[in-house]
Amino acid sequence: MTEKIITELHARFSRTTEEIFSLKEWDLLLRSGKQLRIKYGVDVTAPFLHIGHAVNLWMMRELQDLGHKVVFLIGDFTTQIGDPTGKSKTRPEIPKEKIEQNADMFIEQAKMVLRFDDHNLLEIRRNSEWYDSMGLSEFLKLISVVTHGRLISRDMFQKRIAGSADIYMHELVYPILQGYDSLMLEADLTIIGTDQLFNEMMGRSFQERFGQKPQVIITTKITPGIDGIVKQSKSLDNYIGLGHSPRDKFGRIMRLPDALISTYFRVYTEVTDEKLHDISGMIQSDPLAAKKLLAMEIVKRYHGENIAHEERDWFDRVFSKRQAPVDIPTITIEAKSSSVMEFIKQFFGKKKSNAEIRRLFQQGAVTLNGRKINNHLEQIDPVNGDTFQIGKRVWFRLLLKEKG
Q1: For the chain, what percent of residues have pLDDT higher than 90?
Q2: 48 FRET partner, CA 20 to 30 A, in 181, 284, 351, 373?
Q3: Looking at the domain covering 246-320, what would its CATH class be?
Q4: Could you tell me where the beta strands, DSSP code E, fall in 268-320?
Q5: pLDDT reading at 95 higher than 90
Q6: What is the average pLDDT across 149-165?
Q7: CA angle, 289 as apex, 284 and 294 as ends, to 5°?
Q8: Can you spell out the DSSP letters for 74-133?
Q9: What's the CA gap between 61 and 132, in Å, rounded?
Q10: Each residue of 14-48: pLDDT tens digit?
């Protein structure tokens, strides 16, 4: 790898990197000329990825394009334990059948970023390969090199101790298992969120102890979700999922607080640093236009430029030109055909009778994506982002339930 390529790589990675352990080792790896083995380990407790997760994937993809290999490690064994990161209580056990289903869904989403088309650039492994056959004596030998003091120093364990909450032995063992994975994979590099640093530093320790060069660890920046408060989370519905449709991605980005527009451009798009400078002025003078551009860039990254333009046109047609509010209410529905009347009834609940709703259609007060609907029995196949307007002031949007 030439010095020019290394310099350019450092510049691009700096936009999303928090820390590197260590920078000197990282430079030596890049200059070594060897194909790097990049550990990407996932526990498949929840089979969904959002654009925050994808920050790491895009960095790995860039390294794949330079000829390096991602070792996609499915933690089918460790998923049965569950990393206690950020959890105040023990995670429930997940059946093996569900773990395999989740793994398949995880891979499908990862394919939106990583290259799965060349076995020289991607290798899929499962940590049950070594843990299912590990004997008790071997396991005891492994944990004998880690002190209780080191394990209990982990921040979430300290929080549980402070709150007089239980810590179970299998949870204490989890960082050891994740660290040992790095030894088994002979990992040169891992790119992670900061919440995984403790576990991956354990991996460095095992590699050094057993004669391997320790993996370089790159931690990446974590941004607030689209609510502007806490990191992206499915349970809080403040995330932009890789599995979301282009329309839903666009609409969710438009809910982003203005204060985060610049951060999202830097972390989640490929817009050049020079263009970012120009965009900063746009954010000050016309934040709505900047947010539309941001939405286009993110949709383009996952679905292509043509679809990004289509979604921008749709948004302008339905929202901007008809002065619809950006942050309108949503109702979550099944992805199946139904009458327009049923969607209106679900939105109003018990606030309006069937007769009152039928009168809205008779008065021409109901539109769907800007199209007036007079027949309350008209059947439609709902799409994420379908937008209803009732009269002049009432709007709502359809959100399809995610499969699985």
Answers
A1: 61
A2: 181
A3: mainly alpha
A4: none
A5: no
A6: 90
A7: 95
A8: E-TTGGGT---TT-SSPPPP--HHHHHHHHHHHHHHHTTTS--S-TTTEEEEETHHHHTT
A9: 31
A10: 999 999 999 999 999 999 999 999 999 988 877 78
Domain with CATH 3.10.290.10 in the chain: 330-400
CA atoms within 13 A on the CB side of 208: 10
As a whole number, mean pLDDT of residues 305-333 equals 81
* Highest averaged pLDDT of the listed ranges 54-63, 94-103, 249-258, 353-362: 54-63
> What's the CA gap between 225 and 237, in Å, rounded?
9
* d(C-alpha 331, C-alpha 387), whole Å: 10
Q: Where in the chain is CATH 1.10.240.10? A: 246-320
Q: How far apart are CA 178 and CA 127, in angstroms?
A: 9
User: Residue 391 — very low, low, confident or very high, per pLDDT cuts 50/70/90?
Assistant: confident
Helical axes 3-13 vs 23-32, angle rounded to 10°: 140
State the amino acid at position 79 in one-letter form: T
Mean pLDDT of the chain: 89
Structure tokens at 68: 């390096």
Asked: is 3-220 a CATH 3.40.50.620 domain? The reply is yes
Query: For residues 298 and 301, what is the distance between their CA atoms, to the nearest angstrom?
Result: 5
Topology at the third CATH level for domain 330-400: 3.10.290
User: Count H helices, E strands: the chain?
Assistant: 17, 13
Share of the chain above pLDDT 70, in %: 94
How far apart are alpha carbons 324 and 313 in whole angstroms?
14
What per-residue confidence (pLDDT) applies to 88? Answer: 47
The strand pairing partners of 399, in sequence order, are: 332
3-class DSSP state for residue 388? strand
Distance (Å, whole) CA 331 – CA 401: 10
Dihedral sign, Cα of residue 108, residue 114, residue 120, residue 125:
negative
pLDDT digits (tens, 9 = 90+) for 230-242: 999 877 888 999 9
**Range(s) for CATH 3.40.50.620 in the chain?**
3-220
pTM for this one?
Answer: 0.79
Instruction: State the Cα–Cα distance between residues 345 and 367, nearest whole angstrom.
Output: 15
